């Protein structure tokens, strides 16, 4: 909303020296967002005067038409002689009054005016267009003034070129501020000055002589006022003051009748529409559109109407979209002159519509037809229903004053039954919300300033004004008191949490895992938690795979991703693909987050109240309606894990790197991973590992790791040999020992023993490792597989696993006998459990 300061002063007696910046500070303190204060006419210096064209000489021989004009500017040039001015505009003639800037003046933007020779003539000034004076963007022609203005009159004052305009960003809940009336009310309250309300005018009572109106949908239209004005002069034009106020407010002058309706809308906040009475067939109606109906709106577009559209009709059908835009078949006709008779034809009788439409209905219609207008922006934010009669009367008065019309005695007013909205508010409620002691008197005074009627002592009964439909609850009233008392006066206090609060073990594990993966060279990539079925098809998931049980969103951001993710891999792989497309091929990404698994037994969620704290049962019911949300961590790798350089070739990523990422995560949970071969989509069947952990003595699957299936990498546009790991942190936490304690550093020497065991090819290395660990006992510090060998000398179906065993005691140096005994016990346990034999024995 653009608010000229000169216009605002008509409703509030601001101090004489108050500037736009001062008003901005006051309004910002009151909670309005004043984005800028525009200084109109900044840098403009006279003389800038009214001139009359005495003669025009057409100059020939140039690429464009050029005119050499003699202009009378009175005594403004100090001599009274005519000014010779070169001008290229064609929209004026001899005798017209124009705006002339004389040598020595300066136009906005630092454009100094002087006499200069051009097109073979000396131009002593310039005839100005609206754009050159900063009035508007119209530069098609120069300004032609009405003939009643005297030559030599100061045009700076006449055209109101010097002013300040406040540009206010009005939030959706403050629709009343989309009018001078609303901004003036806020200004008067901020300065604690009286308000001259432009809607407080005498309005005649409704009678049976008004234009016939039939409202068949009182829910969509609860108030409709119609007035008629006849005998309008079709040649009447908007006066300069009216055009300038519209221009300063950001609107383009069109014609007198349209300009007046726009002016009243800006002044009072009530959108209006003027119909050419001669083009209306019968009574005006308000109803929902019927199937197959169409309407050509004022913008020239033919629109197929929806059954939910509220329309204005006559006997011929729809003539307007209620609250959005009128129809082209009843618009005000421009004045046209008959070439033979010279008589001017145009609209001489108008019917004024001032109605109140349901905000939701107008908003849906505007969005459905992609047709946002000044009227719809106001209606969908809430318009004062009590202002319709005043706005109609104001429009009638201006039409009579400026267009020479006559107001008919008939007044049509249809009002649906209704009552003002009342809120019960404890007098100390704003105190509790703000943590400030305002007191009852301050609360009552502030509520009365915004237009409320307040009764009561400890419990206040507050009747909300008709122009504030956003005030519906006690907290809304508390907010009004707080903002008017000043947000800057609220004390800055930090909340005091009770002792013993902090991160949960689940949150601590989440953070430790993130730090560990980042330390291992992975980069965190956070993705939107949305997926579509297409990516699950690309993964090759079976129809009964639980990852296909999606939780679908009612209003998804994208139709391609209408559900919540059941796995972290789609988002990570999408990030991997985007980075690879931008030239980054050696990548290691990770993400920790929730996945959403629907069980199919979730009850429907019930709505929670907003006027009180929900009960424990209501909160429990809401929690029960949520899907299962386990926390997971996933990594994806592509390209080289170690870069190539002068030291040698690079090391490409492999399934082993993905498995090691799982081990890094498990170590942070204090859990020991068991790795076995597995087949699970979307991994390669021969390069997929199952990651297991022991919970309550039972092995459970906590995740998978390995190389992705070639068909998956091809479908997703990924590099070959792309690897991934995904593990469930919640299950891993159950298998872990809690917080990981720092290792004890022994001062005694370590003893290393290598053993090579031959086993069947089908035996998992993890099983051999478990047997060795259990057999070696407490003296075993660590165990590492460092070689896997197959060959003819071992025999078909056999493989050799070489392990490095490190032995150490916490309190002494081990003897050779102790080391040998532990080693032999480990080998014996592996032989008994896996059939391993010591290689070379």
Automatic annotation (TrEMBL):
Binds 2 magnesium ions per tetramer. Keywords: Aminoacyl-tRNA synthetase, ATP-binding, Cytoplasm, Ligase, Magnesium, Metal-binding, Nucleotide-binding, Protein biosynthesis, RNA-binding, tRNA-binding. Residues 418-492 form the B5 domain. Its main location: cytoplasm. Its EC number is 6.1.1.20. Its cofactor is Mg(2+). It is found in: Cytoplasm. It is an enzyme of class 6 (ligase). It comes from the Bacteria. GO terms for molecular function: phenylalanine-tRNA ligase activity. It catalyses: tRNA(Phe) + L-phenylalanine + ATP = L-phenylalanyl-tRNA(Phe) + AMP + diphosphate + H(+). Residues 746-839 form the FDX-ACB domain. Residues 42-156 form the TRNA-binding domain. Tetramer of two alpha and two beta subunits. This is Phenylalanine--tRNA ligase beta subunit. The gene is pheT.
């Amino acid at each position: 909303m653009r608010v000229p300061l000169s216009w605002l002063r008509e409703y509030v007696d601001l101090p004489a020296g108050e500037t736009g910046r001062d008003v901005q500070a006051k309004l910002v303190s009151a909670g309005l967002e004043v984005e800028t204060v525009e200084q109109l006419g900044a840098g403009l210096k006279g003389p800038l005067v009214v001139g009359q064209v005495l003669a025009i000489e057409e100059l020939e021989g140039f690429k464009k038409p050029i005119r050499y004009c003699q202009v009378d500017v009175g005594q403004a040039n100090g001599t009274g002689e005519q000014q010779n001015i070169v001008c290229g505009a064609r929209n004026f003639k001899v005798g017209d009054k124009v705006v002339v800037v004389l040598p020595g003046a300066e136009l906005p933007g630092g454009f100094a005016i002087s006499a200069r020779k051009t097109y073979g003539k000396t131009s002593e000034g310039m005839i100005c267009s609206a754009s050159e004076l900063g009035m508007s963007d119209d530069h098609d022609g120069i300004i032609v003034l009405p003939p009643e203005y005297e030559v030599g009159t100061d045009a700076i004052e006449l055209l109101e070129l010097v002013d300040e305009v406040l540009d206010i960003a009005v939030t959706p809940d403050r629709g009343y501020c989309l009018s001078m009336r609303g901004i003036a009310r806020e200004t008067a309250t901020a300065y604690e000055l009286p308000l001259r309300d432009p809607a407080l005018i005498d309005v005649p009572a409704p009678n049976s002589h008004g234009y016939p109106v039939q409202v068949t949908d009182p829910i969509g239209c609860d108030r409709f006022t119609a007035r008629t004005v006849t005998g309008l002069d079709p040649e009447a034009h908007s006066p300069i003051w009216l055009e300038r106020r519209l221009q300063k407010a950001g609107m383009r002058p069109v014609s007198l009748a349209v300009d007046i309706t726009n002016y009243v809308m800006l002044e009072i906040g009530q959108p209006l529409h003027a119909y050419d009475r001669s083009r209306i067939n019968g009574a005006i109606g308000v109803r929902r559109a019927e199937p197959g109906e169409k309407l050509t709106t004022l913008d020239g577009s033919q629109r197929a109407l929806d059954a939910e559209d509220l329309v204005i009709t006559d006997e011929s059908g729809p003539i307007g979209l209620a609250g959005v835009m009128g129809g082209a078949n009843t618009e005000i006709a421009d004045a046209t002159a008959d070439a033979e008779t010279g008589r001017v034809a145009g609209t001489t009788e108008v019917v004024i519509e001032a109605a109140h439409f349901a905000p939701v209905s107008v908003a849906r219609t505007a969005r459905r037809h992609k047709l946002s207008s000044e009227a719809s922006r106001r209606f969908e934010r809430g318009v004062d229903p009590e202002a319709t009669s005043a706005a109609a009367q104001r429009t009638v008065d201006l039409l009579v004053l400026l267009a020479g019309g006559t107001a008919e005695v008939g007044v049509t007013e249809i009002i649906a039954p209704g009552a003002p909205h009342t809120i019960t508010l404890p007098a100390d409620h704003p105190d509790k919300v703000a943590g400030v002691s305002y007191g009852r008197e301050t609360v009552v005074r502030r509520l009365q300033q915004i237009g409320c009627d307040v009764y009561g002592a400890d419990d206040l009964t507050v009747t909300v004004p008709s122009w504030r439909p956003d005030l519906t609850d006690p907290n809304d009233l508390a907010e009004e008191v707080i903002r008017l008392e000043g947000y800057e006066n609220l004390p800055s206090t930090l909340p005091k949490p009770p002792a013993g609060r902090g991160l949960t073990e689940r949150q601590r594990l989440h953070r430790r895992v993130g730090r560990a993966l980042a330390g291992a060279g992975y980069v965190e990539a956070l993705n939107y938690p949305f997926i579509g079925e297409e990516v699950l098809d690309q993964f090759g998931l079976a129809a009964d795979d639980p990852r296909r049980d999606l939780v679908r969103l009612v209003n998804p951001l994208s139709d391609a991703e209408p559900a919540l993710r059941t796995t972290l891999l789609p988002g990570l792989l999408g990030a991997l693909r985007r980075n690879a497309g931008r030239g980054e091929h050696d990548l290691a990404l990770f993400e920790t987050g929730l996945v959403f698994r629907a069980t199919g037994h979730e009850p429907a969620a019930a709505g929670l109240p907003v006027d009180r704290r929900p009960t424990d049962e209501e909160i429990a019911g809401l929690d029960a309606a949520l899907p299962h949300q386990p926390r997971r961590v996933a990594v994806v790798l592509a390209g080289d894990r170690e870069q190539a350089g002068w030291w040698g070739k690079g090391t490409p990523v492999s399934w082993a790197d993905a498995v090691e990422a799982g081990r890094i995560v498990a170590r942070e949970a204090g859990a020991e991973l068991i790795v076995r071969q597995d087949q699970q989509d979307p991994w390669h069947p021969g390069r997929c590992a199952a990651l297991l952990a022991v919970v309550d003595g039972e092995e459970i699957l906590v995740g998978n790791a390995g190389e992705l299936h070639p068909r998956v990498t091809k479908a997703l546009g990924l590099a070959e040999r792309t690897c991934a790991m995904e593990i469930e942190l919640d299950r891993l936490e159950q298998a872990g020992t809690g917080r990981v304690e720092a290792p004890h550093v022994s001062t005694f020497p370590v003893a290393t023993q290598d053993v090579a065991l031959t086993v069947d090819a089908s035996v998992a290395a993890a099983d051999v490792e478990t047997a060795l660990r259990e057999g070696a006992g407490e003296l075993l510090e660590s165990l590492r597989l460092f070689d896997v060998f197959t060959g003819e000398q071992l025999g078909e179906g056999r493989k050799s696993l070489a392990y490095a065993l490190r032995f150490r005691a916490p309190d002494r140096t081990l003897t050779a006998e102790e080391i040998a005994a532990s080693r032999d016990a480990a080998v014996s346990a592996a032989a008994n459990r896996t059939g391993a034999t010591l290689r070379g024995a």
